[in-house]
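input
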Amino acid sequence: MNVAFTTKQRPPLVAPLVGLAIGYVVWRELALLPMAEASDVAQRVADACAALLPSSILLLVMIVAQMIGRNLAGAIDPVAGRDSRFLLINQRVISNTLEQMVVFAPALLALAARMPPYKMPQVVALALLFALARLVFWIGYLLGARLRAPGMAVTLAVNLVTLAAAVRVWI
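output
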């Protein structure tokens, strides 16, 4: 089977790498933010729950944008086939964000439960970077399908790192 890609079909290579490099720098900076040291497990898990709030808020903003978009476009019935480009993309972003959060949230909470207190800023930084990556993914996707790559690459990296770290601290 011969698969030849046109320039528009070829997966972007540079944008995800740039996104990963920027994401790492942002994570390092976010990890320097001051926070009270959480000495017990309950406080560390509570801090991780609070760190998930920006992602939850962003997901809610996406859902509200979808509702407003449907109302403005008169595309109230999502199966009628009258969705605009914005509605189609936004629905995919909402679905993908929810899918990513299902992997990320339990991994973050498991990591926080076993993380030494002095490393909790790194855990919180992962959650903040996740939210930022989802925002970059959303904006990029609205601008063009290939422009979602940096946000997707950072989201994947954050999910992989968080899940691997959580498994490591529990084994």
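quick obs: The chain is about 75% helix and 0% strand.
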